[in-house]
Design goal:
There is one protein chain. The chain is α+β, with helices and mostly antiparallel strands and 362 residues long. It folds into three domains: 74 residues, no CATH class; 81 residues; 152 residues, Heat Shock Protein 90, CATH 3.30.565.10. The protein contains twelve helices and seven strands. The strands form two sheets. It has a five-stranded mixed sheet with strand order 2-4-5-7-6, with helices on one face. A hairpin with a 3-residue loop joins strand 4 and strand 5. Helix 2 packs antiparallel against helix 3.
Length: 362
């Protein structure tokens, strides 16, 4: 392989670069030979043939080993446009890897700090139990996300194959090509929506609690729902102005917006004669917000899975809206979200929140 990288014939060098990067990626971490091979690849960034220089840029995009930085900086100003493009792509990919690695270390530090706190409170057995539970949850989430993405990628790949075949058929009508491309666009948008939902669900937010007006929060949430939907039933609010609670305003608005949007969307295809009713009251140092609709409702089976990640009965749903609301209300606000529903009669969502944030109560 080293001999190929030093070969006088550029075609042989090109083959050597391909072999070298494959070997580097498969080599065991710590193998002393990796540095020698990578140094050879970096040196080839000055090769007289643009094909070799571009191959070096492609190699840099496939490994974090070695200092390709100066070589990529030089290749990004190469006289050949293909080399410049390959170098810029490689630089972006290596930067993303570095950022992801740094973010991963931050997450690991945060998890270890949390486990240290658990161990201080409950001992090493408590730490081990929490760690096992966390790993189980992470594995389940990753597995479910994989299945959801595969469900979207499989028809997308089928559409791509059909489009390739149609492009190869000179007699294929333009309308068929446009239809296939449109289907691919829709499926990509659906995939993006799932990934955006995943990011919103897993994001770590800095929660700032303050005494807020429940009336103002509900009104803000209802306004967001009205803006996002053209044809929708009325949303009637009956919130006493004196109700206040210590909440993270932005997060609670997001949760209530999701719940109200679900209520409004339950009228799809139905006459929206009865408005969505949102009320609030106090009960034993807690605020109870009730969102009641007369939409399609849910069967017992659908209701049982309503808050499960990726579970959705909507054609364009992602399965993150209700689980995110549960996370915000229960995990972040120490509250409770209860759903009651009957197929054909509508759904009632009841949000129970402590008036005082738990850390303040402590």
């Amino acid at each position: 392989m080293i001999a190929a990288l030093d070969a006088p014939a550029w075609e042989e060098v090109l083959d050597g670069v391909a072999s070298a990067i494959s070997w580097v990626r498969a080599a065991a971490p710590g193998d002393a030979r990796i540095r020698r091979v990578v140094d050879k690849l970096v040196a080839l960034s000055g090769h007289p043939k643009w094909e070799v220089r571009r191959a070096v840029a492609h190699a840099a995009a496939q490994t974090l080993y070695g200092d390709f930085g100066p070589a990529l900086a030089r290749l990004s100003t190469d006289l050949n446009a293909r080399v410049r493009q390959a170098a810029e792509t490689a630089a972006l990919r290596r930067r993303d890897w570095a950022n992801a690695s740094a973010l991963g270390r931050q997450h690991e530090d945060h998890i270890n700090a949390t486990l240290d706190d658990v161990e201080a409170r409950f001992g090493s057995r408590g730490r081990a139990a929490v760690k096992r539970a966390g790993e189980h949850i992470a594995n389940t989430f990753a597995r479910e996300l994989y299945h959801e993405v595969i469900k979207l990628l499989s028809p997308l790949a089928t559409s791509a194959d059909r489009l390739v075949q149609q492009l190869g058929d000179a007699a294929a009508p333009r309308e068929k090509l446009v239809d296939e491309a449109s289907r691919m666009k829709d499926r990509i948008a659906r995939l993006r929506a799932v990934l955006d939902g995943m990011r919103a669900y897993t994001a770590q937010h800095e929660l700032r609690f303050a005494r807020e007006s429940i009336k103002e929060i509900v009104e803000e949430s209802a306004a967001l729902v009205r803006e996002g939907l053209r044809k929708a039933p009325r949303i009637e609010l009956d919130i006493p102005p004196h109700l206040h609670a210590e909440v993270c305003r932005a997060r609670l608005v997001q949760a209530l917006t999701n719940l109200m949007a679900n209520a409004v969307e339950s009228y799809d295809g139905l006459p929206a004669a009865t408005p969505v009713a949102v009320t609030a009251q106090t009960a034993e140092n807690r605020v109870v917000i009730t969102i009641e609709d007369r939409g399609c409702g849910m069967s017992d089976e659908v209701l049982a899975d309503a808050a499960v990640l990726f579970s959705t009965s909507k054609p364009d749903g992602t399965g993150f809206g209700l689980p995110l609301a549960v996370k915000i209300i229960e995990s972040e606000h120490d509250g409770r979200l209860a759903l009651e529903s009957r197929k054909g009669y509508g759904t009632t969502a009841r949000v129970v929140l402590p008036i005082h944030h738990r850390r303040e109560r402590a």
